[in-house]
Amino acid sequence: MSEVVQHGIGGGSRPDSAAVEDRYPTRLDHAIEPIPRHEPVVWGTVADGPLSQHHLDGFSEYGYLVAPETVSDDWLPLLRHEIDRLAADLDDDDPRLIREPGGTIRSIFEPHLLSDLVAQLVRLDTVLPVARQLLGGDVYIHQARINLMPGFTGTGFYWHSDFETWHAEDGMPAIRAVSCSIALTENYPYNGSLMVIPGSHQTFYPCVGATPEDNHDTSLVAQNVGVPDQTTLTKAVDAHDIHQFTGPPGTALWFDANLLHGSGSNITPLPRSNVFLVFNSVDNALTDPFAAPRPRPEYLAARGAQAVT
Among candidates 303, 246, 264, 296, which has minimal Cα distance to 280? Predict the structure, then answer.
């Protein structure tokens, strides 16, 4: 039996005096059993967008979908140049610029607000209609970033569910968000490409350990809070296996907000980069954080729920 707590809301579209059920308690002082997912995975139908029933069924079962040629070849050099421009233009103390411990750039947040080109990318016919179809209506950008994994020095991302963080630290009430990772470079099995645990999106894995003050200051480089323990991960892999995302630039990986995923470090000479877009349903607006003292900054979690048009 999962724990349920009541949560007072200070943000989003509901009045402050309202309370919303926390169906996914996490960052606890003791371990509890995994919680079955409450929401559907796919909210739309074949009539709502470009994905076939086969694709929708696969996404529902596995929690992810690989979409080749989401971005055409003529876009790729423009996007790579845009990354270089953003990296050069942002001040070193800009909080949207995240660096590895060694100094190389790891992530650039809010590229869709810093770049007209990335803003256009969000609205491509191969991107926005897919998000609307999967989430069953209007969507907004909850978070966007460019991820860079340079050769030799790029470090990985430990196993985690994005929703666990967005729920605990941003106040996302329900699992009704989807991520789109668009590869700008070749993804090989050996240059730190993303791994997923297919089917793990159907279960929420509560984590132990309170959220530290300003956790995002360190978690964006190395996430140590809000990650499942090794026993939980072992059981999840035993039940579901591990799949790895590989493929040419321009390919997109769509995956459910609650899918367990991670990546190893890149010790090859071959860099890896992607544009990472998180779409949330406008009907899933953020509230107060469920397990953090205050919301993360706007560049990590947009609180306006303004639909992308």
Answer: 303
The alpha carbons of the chain give a radius of gyration, in whole angstroms, of: 18
Q: What is the CATH number of domain 38-300?
A: 2.60.120.620
Phi then psi for 117, rounded to 5 degrees?
A: -65, -45
H or E segment to which residue 91 belongs: none
Residue 8 has phi, psi (to 5 degrees) of -80, 140
* Extents of the domains making up the chain: 38-300
pLDDT per residue as tens digits for the range 152-199: 988 888 999 999 999 999 999 999 999 999 999 999 999 999 999 999
Report the distance separating Cα 1 and Cα 91, nearest Å. Answer: 49
Tokens matching residue 107? 């992530």
Using the structure block, give the residue that is written with the tokens 């190389």.
104
What angle in degrees, to the nearest 10, is found between the helix axes of 128-135 and 53-62? 70
> What SS3 class is residue 305?
coil
CB 249 within 8 Å of CB 184: yes
**CB atoms near residue 116 (< 10 Å):** 10
Record the pTM: 0.92
